[in-house]
DNA sequence: CCGGACCGTCGATTCGATTCGACTATTTCA
DNA sequence: TGAAATAGTCGAATCGAATCGACGGTCCGG
């Protein structure tokens, strides 16, 4: 309510002096500073965000671009959001949510053009993501959480898909599994899918590993279908790696329907699933992947550095995915090696 | 980038004319309007949010106050957030996240004083919630999602705890259960807990229903402890109603440890758990409660109405909780009536 | 045919903070 | 001792849009 002019009047100085006292841009004598501070306290003065933003071209607001149809939420999104929001706040920034679809280019253009936000965090980045060009054109600095097909020259934070895939594959091979399945999401050219393939190839030193990959829709039904397909293409399958949170329920349900007990008959592991969700599953789901909250925080850090004038070449940060062993993976049973096709 | 002055120059009119053309506040001739629109297109003009906010005292930003320690997120929060964000956006508003703790009164005071937001949505409202006074003092209109101890005169949207409790209790009694348990959260004076108690009392027409209530911490461990306590105080218990998402994993785990199969030996039902989470559990969890996304939307609606100058007395909206029957509740077995104490 | 009601437009002021140039008083150094 | 640097403060311009009062022109009714 109170304005700078009010404070100035009460402290018996000019408006500019108050401003300098607040920002520290120019030296102010101790006595004057004290009077001003007292006046600010008395009047409960809070600088007006708009006036400040108008003149200084800095809003201290960053936005989180999260294309999300409400109704089919990914639980892990929440971790990113909270991780980012919390950290941004600690750094003196506000976090604004932008949920419009990836394709809503015009809306985004307008949003970016308003000058409301200092920068943006991009989530659910697609290989060819139209939002990137919009932000570049509008001159809004941004950091991606995930990455597009050609991220050269762009800042991003992402899970280390190669390393995570390797850890996951290694674990299952170590348990004796040789016939693996992979369930991905519907996104084109999922980097994780590729990473798994590579990891299997690399590890496959005469082990004769079999890998079947399938893309599932993000729903229980999608998971069911994926499971049926997997079993159809590789009846002797003993372990499944899932990179699609929303399909897990269907996979579990279907595996029960097909009479495959987890982990006795079938091991299952999910990538990038939050711990509290994994704990809910019976048996508790073994997972692999970095902490979403931490990635969110790192993305904020990276963005804020740019806002502070960092002109270094594009920074790209990968997060190691830890393996969280719970109860959904078990050593392969010997019987499976011989006769696993007759169920 | 382009300003109103640029547009005015290009269209050969004055700044004020452009402004009137944009807002429609005063009549503008068709030919002039067209020239202006063309100029705006040519220059890709977007009104500056700060200048607009400074002059008009309206930011078209609302904030969502969601005290959340990242690390222990409630999956249902995400539904509220996305429901609210999406709807706000549709209504031409931006949604800003504020994650500071309920007790961080000073931070909130400053935030509210900045004039950045037109209004606020309050989540995780406590019986005695200091944020309420802060917002009232700052003159920031707000709507609560949930309610405090004395919500008279305040706008809120909430689940209809009485009705939901009644539906839940009725369902279990209908299945023959007479020894019930209730697991609540750590919040003081949880209205749901009370509602359950009342519902049991009301329904108890000589049925001789037994109800044991316990508060659990929001964690797997909390759920485990609650289960042990429940079993200790009421060994013959056959059904549990849970109003604490984060304790469910512990309850499930403990019930397995104690050899109680769900739903054969023990029925379990969770209030206000999102469908996609309930589907993950084995067996799929029966739930009761309204749609979080819908509540989020309704809260936005209510708030925006106030921002549009609605001066009606406080609006208070309760949402019916639908029962979603999945697989975690079953008819009580007759044996339980006679000898359920000897496990 | 003249006065008032409207229409369409413009100039000037305002919102509240930032910042540049200028000015005074004091200090520093050659 | 005089020139230059420094500390401390002020006034005024500025950011970009909203809005009020005013003004010339058109139209209508009496």
UniProtKB/TrEMBL annotation, chains A, B:
<dbReference type="InterPro" id="IPR000843">
    <property type="entry name" value="HTH_LacI"/>
</dbReference>
<keyword id="KW-0804">Transcription</keyword>
<dbReference type="InterPro" id="IPR010982">
    <property type="entry name" value="Lambda_DNA-bd_dom_sf"/>
</dbReference>
<feature type="domain" description="HTH cro/C1-type">
    <location>
        <begin position="3"/>
        <end position="46"/>
    </location>
</feature>
<dbReference type="InterPro" id="IPR028082">
    <property type="entry name" value="Peripla_BP_I"/>
</dbReference>
<dbReference type="GO" id="GO:0003677">
    <property type="term" value="F:DNA binding"/>
</dbReference>
<dbReference type="Pfam" id="PF13377">
    <property type="entry name" value="Peripla_BP_3"/>
</dbReference>
<keyword id="KW-0805">Transcription regulation</keyword>
<keyword id="KW-0238">DNA-binding</keyword>
<dbReference type="Pfam" id="PF00356">
    <property type="entry name" value="LacI"/>
</dbReference>
<protein>
    <submittedName>
        <fullName>LacI family DNA-binding transcriptional regulator</fullName>
    </submittedName>
</protein>
<dbReference type="InterPro" id="IPR001387">
    <property type="entry name" value="Cro/C1-type_HTH"/>
</dbReference>
<feature type="domain" description="HTH lacI-type">
    <location>
        <begin position="2"/>
        <end position="56"/>
    </location>
</feature>
<dbReference type="InterPro" id="IPR046335">
    <property type="entry name" value="LacI/GalR-like_sensor"/>
</dbReference>
């Amino acid at each position: 309510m109170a304005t700078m002019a009010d404070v100035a009047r009460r402290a018996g100085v000019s408006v500019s002096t108050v401003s300098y006292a607040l920002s520290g841009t120019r030296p102010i004598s101790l006595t004057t500073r004290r009077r001003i501070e007292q006046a600010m306290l008395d009047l409960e003065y809070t600088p007006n965000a708009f006036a400040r933003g108008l003149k200084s071209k800095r809003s201290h607001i960053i936005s989180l671009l999260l294309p999300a149809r409400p109704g089919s939420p990914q639980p892990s999104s929440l971790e990113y959001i909270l991780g980012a929001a919390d950290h941004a706040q600690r750094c003196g920034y506000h976090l604004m949510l932008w949920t419009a679809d990836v394709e809503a280019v015009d809306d985004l253009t307008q949003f970016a053009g308003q000058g409301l936000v200092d920068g943006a965090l991009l989530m659910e980045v697609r290989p060819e993501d139209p939002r990137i060009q919009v932000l570049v054109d509008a001159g809004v600095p941004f950091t991606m959480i995930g990455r597009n097909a050609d991220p050269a020259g762009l800042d991003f934070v992402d899970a280390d898909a190669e390393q995570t895939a390797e850890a996951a594959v290694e674990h299952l091979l170590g348990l004796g599994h040789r016939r693996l399945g992979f369930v991905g999401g519907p996104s084109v050219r999922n980097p994780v899918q590729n990473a798994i393939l590579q990891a299997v190839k690399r590890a496959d030193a005469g082990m004769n590993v079999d890998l079947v990959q399938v893309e599932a829709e993000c729903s229980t039904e999608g998971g069911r279908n994926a499971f049926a397909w997997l079993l159809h293409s590789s009846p002797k399958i003993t372990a499944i790696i899932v990179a699609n949170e929303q399909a897990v329920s269907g996979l579990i349900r279907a595996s029960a329907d097909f009479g495959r007990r987890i982990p006795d008959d079938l091991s299952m592991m999910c990538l990038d699933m939050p711990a509290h969700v994994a704990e809910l599953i019976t048996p508790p789901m073994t997972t692999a992947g970095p902490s979403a909250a931490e990635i969110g925080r790192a993305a904020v850090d990276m963005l804020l550095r740019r806002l502070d004038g960092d002109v270094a070449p594009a920074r790209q940060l990968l997060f190691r995915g830890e393996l969280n062993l719970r109860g959904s993976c078990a050593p392969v049973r010997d019987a499976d090696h011989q006769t696993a096709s007759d169920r």
